[in-house]
Write a structure and sequence with these properties.
The chain has 12 helices and 11 strands. The protein is an alpha/beta fold. An 8-stranded parallel beta sheet has the order 8-5-4-3-2-1-11-10. It has a 3-stranded mixed beta sheet with strand order 7-6-9, with no helix packed on it. The structure holds zinc ion (ZN). Residues 85, 140, 144, 178, 206, 228 line the site of zinc ion.
Length: 287
């Protein structure tokens, strides 16, 4: 069932576990992610970046794809279709109009007053359509989908200002980066605890790929109730295909059919990452 994030994330916040946002980039990833989540009875947020939407065709394609998969695969878990890093008010509205049940408005590069003002406009629009909103303060480092930034820790003052906008979850950047980490991540656990308490909002951890398991667990205990995973899934998938070509495995058997190659050498590895993260986040049997 496609729903907004409210019920699922509040339950996670209370239960001290995290809902994964797994990014989808095409029909293949949407399908295998939903299959694993259904198997684990794990509520899921399917994140879709503006770049992924462009690649897939647009927000209407994504909505119909996910709704179609829910129906055809008999998916019974709560599924939230979420715009990841919406770069403008217009793109958030467009996604909501198409049927997205949640959006992230990313005004993190703007002065806080403007970021708050724009977020309020997105929240008001989302409410009319029963959709929920995530906002970002501070900046996530690294590069994802063409979005590059240096790490800038969110301040308590910014978080409190943003918490009054009516958002359902807050991405307070505290040292995480998109893509792969170069060296150990330096996450601000003390800030997480303070911000979660002072804002009373579920926090969102972007750039969850490559953070060691013990730090993920500590982040959840410190207030992170949504953790985004994209890089690790795509990497596992791509490595599988790379291995196939490098070792020229069973070319006759697969007959150069992409569905046979991904089915045997890419999807199982990507699925294993999805399953592993669900277990790590404590999100199984929560549907
Ligand atoms: Zn992000």
């Amino acid at each position: 069932m496609l729903e907004n994030v409210e019920k699922v994330i509040q339950k996670a916040k209370k239960g001290k576990y995290a809902i994964p946002q797994f990014n989808i980039n095409d029909s293949t990833s949407a399908k295998f992610i939903l299959e694993v989540c259904e198997e684990k009875k794990a509520p899921v947020i399917l994140g879709c970046s503006e770049g992924a939407l462009k690649y897939m065709g647009g927000p209407t394609v994504a909505v119909n794809l996910v709704k179609g998969l829910i129906k055809d695969l008999n998916i019974t878990i709560p599924v939230i279709l979420h715009l990841d890093h919406g770069q403008s008010i217009a793109s958030c509205k467009k996604a909501i109009d198409a049927g997205f049940t949640s959006v992230m408005y990313d005004g993190s590069t703007l002065p806080i007053e403007q970021n708050v003002k724009n977020t309020i406009e997105v929240v008001e629009y989302a409410r009319k359509h029963n959709a929920t909103v995530e906002a970002e303060v501070g900046t996530v480092g690294g590069t994802e989908d063409g979005i590059t930034g240096g790490v800038r820790y969110a301040s308590l003052d910014e978080c409190i200002k943003m918490s009054k906008t009516g958002i359902s979850m807050l991405a307070a950047s505290l040292g995480s980066v998109h893509g792969f980490y170069h060296g150990e991540p330096k996450l601000g656990f003390t800030e997480m605890e303070t911000y979660a308490k002072e804002t009373n909002l579920p926090l969102v951890l972007h750039g969850g790929s490559g953070i060691p398991d013990d730090q993920i667990k500590r982040a959840i205990m410190s207030g992170e109730a949504k953790i985004n995973i994209n890089t690790e899934i795509q990497n596992a998938f791509n490595q599988g295909i790379a291995k196939y070509y490098k070792e020229k495995l069973n070319l006759n058997e697969t007959g150069y059919m992409l569905k046979n190659i991904t089915g045997k050498y890419a999807i199982p590895f990507a699925k294993a990452i999805v399953a592993e993260k669900i277990e790590l986040f404590g999100n199984y049997n929560k549907a």
